Exodeoxyribonuclease 7 small subunit (Streptomyces bungoensis), 74 residues
Amino acid sequence: MTGKVDEALSYEQARDELIEVVRRLEAGGTTLEESLALWERGEELAAVCRRWLEGARARLDAALAAEEAGEDAE
């Protein structure tokens, strides 16, 4: 479950933090509890990134549809 803080993250901020989480998990040396917390945070950050990318895709699709509709009207 993501919080209001996560919703305020930009795509780049979420991506960079996710990269750091993955780096820490791959490096090892954390307890099981720390690893689980990192994994959960990674899932939250991935969801934030996914929402940003879905929003970007929707905006692109809308812009392309509007452009196509304008061409059809000519």
